[in-house]
Amino acid sequence: WLGLPFSGDMGCIDNTPQGCRPEYNRSVSQPACPALCVPEDSPPSSVVGIPLYRSTGTNCSGHRSCNRDITLQPFNPMSLNAVYASHARGLITRYANETTPFFLYVAFAHTHTPLAYDEARFGNASKRPGRGKIFGNTLAEVDHAIGEIVEAVDAHGLANDTLILLTSDLSLIHI
Predict the structure, then answer these.
(1) How many Cα atoms are found within 13 Å in the side-chain-facing hemisphere of 159?
(2) Consecutive H or E run containing 2
(3) Strands (E), 8-87
(4) At 15, phi and psi to the nearest 5?
(5) With b meaning 16 or more CB within 10 Å and e meaning fewer, what string describes 69-104?
């Protein structure tokens, strides 16, 4: 299992993504979007850095504490889709020659709340203004990641025996 244990707006991340306007405007001083983690020389924060977990088995890979399965804390939203796609490709490669079918579920954080994308690769994917540009760029990044996963399925000769379903939630309410 590779992923975040909860929503990206429930803690802090390592930097402010493109779609984020950190401001305290919700009840109980909760940030409007993922907050910056406090610098090292600042007083301790009560905001939890959102971890990225990689568990290799049930019950926290058999450890007494799930903390041993944390690979990055706080996670980097700019590289999360690439990490998910890479992990998926690795699993496809690992199980491609198995005689039993396997199930791969990839749950991208986008496009429900498009907050971040790899600026160097997808910063100019969308020509829309404002938040529409952020949505377009994050959508382009997800599309690319799905393409990489499909290419891995094809490369291992699994296309004729593979069902790929793409779903999304309600996506953005306001662009």
Answers:
(1) 8
(2) strand 2-3
(3) 12-13, 35-36, 52-54, 70-72
(4) -160, 170
(5) bbebbbbebbbbbbbbbbbbbebbeeeeeeeeeeee
- pLDDT at residue 159, rounded to an integer: 93
The CA distance from 71 to 132, in Å, is 32
Tokens coding 125? 């994917």
DSSP string across 152-164: HHHHTT-GGG---
Q: Is the dihedral of CA 62, 68, 73, 75 positive or negative?
A: negative
State phi, psi for 2 to the nearest 5 degrees: -130, 125
pLDDT band of residue 27 (cuts 50, 70, 90) is very low
46-82 tens-digit pLDDT: 666 788 889 887 777 777 778 888 888 878 878 888 9
- CA proximity to 104, closest of 114, 119, 117, 94: 94
Cβ atoms of 52 and 4 within 8 Å: the answer is yes
DSSP string, 107-175: --STTTS-----HHHHTTS----HHHHHHHHHHHHHHHHHHHHHHHHHHTT-GGG--------S--S--
- Alpha-carbon distances of 53 from 57, 133, 161, rounded to whole Å: 12, 30, 30
